[in-house]
Every structure is written in structure tokens, then in C-alpha cells.
Amino acid sequence: MADPTLEDLLRRCERRAVHLELRDGYMRDDPMFVAWQRGHRDDPADRNSWWRPWLSLIEETTARGVDVCRARVVSEPVSDYARFEYDVTFTNVAAGEQVRWLPRRRATDLALPGNDFWLMDDTVVMVNHFGGNGQFTGEEVAVEPALVKLCASAFEAVWERATPHEEYRPA
Q1: CATH of the domain at 100
Q2: Which of 3, 97, 109, 149 has its Cα between 20 and 30 A from that of 51?
Q3: Collapsed DSSP state (helix, strand, coil) of residue 142
Q4: What's the mean pLDDT when you consider all of the chain?
Q5: Backbone angles phi, psi at 109, to 5 degrees
């Protein structure tokens, strides 16, 4: 039987889904990023122009009472990709996500896993793998208690120090 997808895990989640992002850049050929590099900016007032299926899934998840929290550890000055993420994060917030940012220099004394991950209800971890060029290379789902504990404690440590999106200004 195949591992569940992220969408499956979010639909099954009952209390809290957290996502820790540790890279300064991802899929640089993403059409949204390419358009942003060329000067496109989403208009927050024109929801129909930027709403997409991912945001509908997050909105459905949060409407069920699930807290969806995303924390990003970023180097400063931020990369172009991190600035792009910052510029489009209003869409995540509009869908009901809570997002925080932590400058990497403030994370030096935190024990963090080597990969980005999603943690659902403190029981299931989806580890995301990326190549050196930021391209997604795969994911794995795990329920091992030691990994769940590491991911939960890492996320909480970052979340506690991080600045809410509404207050963060990228350097």
C-alpha cells in the first residue's frame, strides 16, 4: 500500500498540522516564482486571481478546527526565493495558516532535523527531500516515536522564537 499523500494527511488531521521549512530556495522553475521574478505581484484584493487548490485545502482544514502552522528558518539578507515566499504568504494567511519567520542566526542553538517536514497531530511525519538545486526529490512518511518527538520539539523551538508574518520584515 502506498504512503498517504500530504493532502490525505491534512484531510485526516484532527488538531494540528505544522510545517517547518529550512531552505533558502525551492523549485526555482516554479511558474509563480518565475512570474514574480519578472515583476508580477498578486493583488490581495483580487482573490480570484491567486486562489488555488492548495489554499482551498488549507481553508477546508482550518475550517474543521485544525491549526495549520508554518515556520520558516531563513538566512538574512533573504534570498530572492525567500522574498518571493514573503510576498505571497498573504495567500497562506488568507486560507487560515499561521506563518512565522525565524532568521537563521537566531536558530544556531536549536537542534533541527536535516530536512523540511510536516507533522500531523504529533503522530505522523512527512519528510520532504530536495536536491541541492531546490528541486523536490521525494517524500517519506514516518511514525517512529523518536522522529516524531524530534520534529515536534524542533518545530516548537522555532515557533517560540519566530516572528509572526504580520510583524516580520525581511532583511
Answers
A1: 3.30.870.10
A2: 3
A3: strand
A4: 96
A5: -95, 15
Close Cβ partners of 45 (under 8 Å, ≥ 6 residues apart) = none
H and E: helices and strands count for the chain: 6, 7
Domain that holds residue 34: 6-38+46-164
pLDDT 10s digits, 71-91: 999 999 999 999 999 999 999
User: How far apart (Å, rounded) are the C-alpha atoms in residues 111 and 2?
Assistant: 31
Residue 70, strand partner residues: 19, 99
Q: Tell me the three state secondary structure of residue 93.
A: helix
Total domains, the chain: 1
Q: Residue 39: what residue type?
A: G
Residue 171 in any domain: the answer is: no
* pLDDT of 98 over the 80 cut: yes
Phi, psi of 62 (to 5 degrees): -70, -30
